[in-house]
Prior knowledge:
The complex is a heterodimer of chains A (302) and B (645). With 302 residues, chain A is of the alpha/beta class. Chain A is 46% helix and 15% strand. Chain A contains twelve helices and nine strands. In chain B, helix 1 (7-23) packs parallel to helix 5 (104-121).
Amino acid sequence: MLAQLHQVEQSLNQVILGKQQQIRLALCCLLADGHLLLEDLPGLGKTTLAHALANSLGLSYRRVQFTSDLLPADLTGISIYDARSQQFHFQPGPVFSQVLLADEINRASPKTQSALLEAMEERQVSTDGQTRPLPSPFFVIATQNPLFHAGTSALPESQLDRFLMRLSLGFPERAAEHQLLVDDSKGSRLQFLTQQLDGNTLQSLQQRLGSVTVSDAVIDYLLSLVDASRSRNDMLPLSPRASKALLRASKAHALITGRDFVTADDVQQVFPSVAEHRLDPRSSAASHSHSELLLEQTVCPL
Amino acid sequence: MLVLLNRQAILSFTIILLAIIVLLHQALPLWYSAILVLLLAYRWPLQRTTAKVNKLKRVNIIAAVILLLLLISINQSGIFHFMLQILLLSAVSRMVLIRQRHDSHQLLWVLYFLLACCFIFYQSILLSLLVLALLLFTLYQHYQLYASKQQRLQVLQLGKALLLTFPVWISLFLLFPRLQPLWRIPTADAAVTGLADSLDPGSIESLVQSDTLAFRAIFSGPRPARQQLYWRAKVYEDFDGRSWNVNRRFEARQPTTAQTNEYNNGLRIDYQVITEVSNQRSLFALGIPVQLTHTVRPVAAYLVEARRPVSQRLSYQLSSVLSAIPEDNATEQQLNSRTVKANPQTRALANELAAKTSSTAELIAQISALFRQQPYFYSLNPPRLGDNSIDAFLFDSRTGFCSHYASATAVLLREAGVPARVVGGYQGGVWHEEQQYLEVRQREAHAWVEYFDSGLWHRFDPTAVIAPERVLAGLDAVLSADEQTQLQANWRRFSAVNYINQQLLHLDYYWSVWVLGFDESQQYNLWQQLKAFSKLLALLGLVILLMGLGWWYLRYQRQPENFPAPVRLIRRYFRKLIQHKPAGQNFSQFINTVQRYNPRHAILLETIDSLYQRALFASDQTALRQLKQHLKENRKILTGLNWPE
């Protein structure tokens, strides 16, 4: 199973060139059953990555382009009157899929954003007084433009908190971009995506997460990082939800690296992408200044 | 590990060595200091070029030549200075050769020793502070040299560290036993200051021009009036027609020990004297010294003397009775009745006066009247006198300073048949009310007469007749404005400078009383006083102990040292390199870095890393055992791992 995962990772690397670290973290996020937020300037490949991820997981996925006039019903679906049966029929929206690609999520109005919020956290949708469960697994892979772009409304802290990780791809390296231009004539890069997981494999991998060993020493170190954020006033404190997310992501990272135990290194690797958007929601995803400060100043005795 | 010295360290060593050369200049001939400085200059350009280290041979030859020169001049410098010279030579030669940190070790310890040697020459507060600063600088360099990059002290931390050691300094100073020196430092002949063994007309005038301190006195109990403050230092009994000298066999005379209870009639004074360096043995005392500390001893004519020439500031305690001095030795009368052939006019005058009077007291009154009624003048610049100096003064120039009057009076008395002698010392002093001490400078130098009458030596000060203000108010009151200007150095005229100077002198006084004067007896006194407060102190000690324990406990709580076993193992075997690990880095990353610097041991380090991870994070006992075994087997390699500076 792990071998399959590694092959997926490799083929993703064929699609997005030179971003091994981010791809591994993105896979970590999905393996840890968390929602992923990709934040970048337009044109850096975040939509491509989102598509590639959704594709390679072997799950059914829908894509929604968020705009300012998008209504909650456009996401969740509406009941339509069927004249033949003289009944209302619920027409499920795009949220009823295993992977929801929410493109440019911060272009939507807060009302629509909070409709997504409920779906993300509770994995259910309430319409017309009826609660409908979402399929399982359910992932949201959202992309957003940096906040200073025109026509964006920022996701509130509470909603940012729902995302396990926030990643940024950044500009490709020169060699990678060169390769990208050379291959440009050959068509879409998504064609390189040959490997796919199937839903069962993903689920059993997620189950294996539970059997990854976490020693007390690692938990102590993780807590001292979290504690350090709580004793400072230049950043928001990390919540227990954040520490749970941190542990889950660390476990996933250990699993992807091929270990059945979590090391201090796993924690340090996932920490910036798990913690930065919780420490300072206004910062851009490319800056890891707060989380890196914490990593630097918290003594790692392990 | 081979570590090259950086420029900063070399520059610091050069500065310290130069400072030591300047401080120890008293022990070094000029040519030698010049050679040392040249050697240091020779070292300096090496650092800038890539030239190889000086050949050891060359330096050895240079050092041997210098040593030879030093050996030739050993007679001039004396054995003690010779030793200092050799020590400096070795330090400077080491400095010339030094390239690696490893080499600087001996140099540093020799520097400490040389700095301590500076205290042989200087004890004043300013120079002590300077030496202290140099010592701290050396310590700082020593630390910087051996500390790792992370642990290099910032100035602020340095200050904190010094503050922490301050109580230790104080308690060492207060509690460390004052041992008698095991050997005496042989001192070369140094310039003698103060009153000389010979009193010419004119010698006191030149002494008075010096503004330096002679001694200080602290009175416990009543303080005598100013006109009583005749500090006796020397007794001149031999007159050769022109100058007065200390008797050649004065040293050999046995002093009678004065008994306290014999002198109930006079005023008894208890006081402490702190003398400056004079390189003479003679000390200062008022009246009859009846009780003295063991650092001084009584000598003939009821004077006191140090056991060896005063080459460092000396403090002694005295009790004196202010009354006429008793006869000390049977030969004294006869010694002080000798007359010489010179000065015929004076002899005639003496005979005339003796014929007119019937008692010694009357004779003294006659001499006083003579000085008072005839036009005699008191001056700092008397005219030069010929061979028959007394005649020339009494009948010709009639202008003189205290020594002229004292010597003329003594000659008159001797010619009239009354035993008389000239006493040299100091009169008066400046009383500092706030600091409660009397400051006596060289300008208070004075000479007066003692004559023998009915078994006692009475004091007669002719200056008090000519210029009573000299005795009542001090020298400045008597002198003309021109003469006062002559006495005062230019800068003394600015009152601000004067004020600062005076404050520095007071500081110096407290330094000498509280620091230099802190001897065995003071230490004992301190203990006695502490005993009185023993309960309070015990309580205080208990509180301090509890606070210390509390602090230790808190510290222990804050930084739990009980690491898991694999971490303990890694910390132990990598203890040399672990100080380079940034706080936030984990050991795997750290070992990765070490691997980069030591590619030869990459496989070993990788194995250790994976075993460590299994042992710590997966609690794998076999891995722990293997890790232990691996570390133990490769201990040598691990201690030899490199870390770039």
